[in-house]
Amino acid sequence: MIDGMMRALFLNSEQVCLCSKRVYVERLLFERFCTAIAERIKTMNVDWPHEAATQMGPLISSKHRDKVLSLFELARGEGSIFIAGGGVLSFGDARDSGAWVEPKSARSSGDDARCD
């Protein structure tokens, strides 16, 4: 289940309108699910798209990265709790010129949240 969810969440660096944005998990499984997703996100290989082991690459542009980061802030402002990621990646090499964000997952503040 977690493998499929990771593919659904991070397909094309989350830049596909078909990517899962909200997942409903049975209350009994919720904590275990959140822990498993957070652990997988923290170990994701974020790198150049042409590298075979890459699981998530950069966003399309700095402008888009800024929009994504503003949505992260909106989610935090509405009470979402980030369980993994949500910042800007820094590599200390040529990748720093790209539009990188950390893969993230958040616990939503509720069904009426505009952004998770």
From TrEMBL:
The keyword Methyltransferase does not apply. SUPFAM superfamilies: ALDH-like. Keywords: NAD. The keyword NAD applies. One of its GO terms (molecular function) is oxidoreductase activity, acting on the aldehyde or oxo group of donors, NAD or NADP as acceptor. Gene3D superfamilies: Aldehyde Dehydrogenase, Chain A, domain 2 (3.40.309.10). Residues 2-103 form the Aldehyde dehydrogenase domain. Pfam families: Aldedh. Belongs to the aldehyde dehydrogenase family. This is Aldehyde dehydrogenase family protein. It comes from Pseudomonas reinekei.
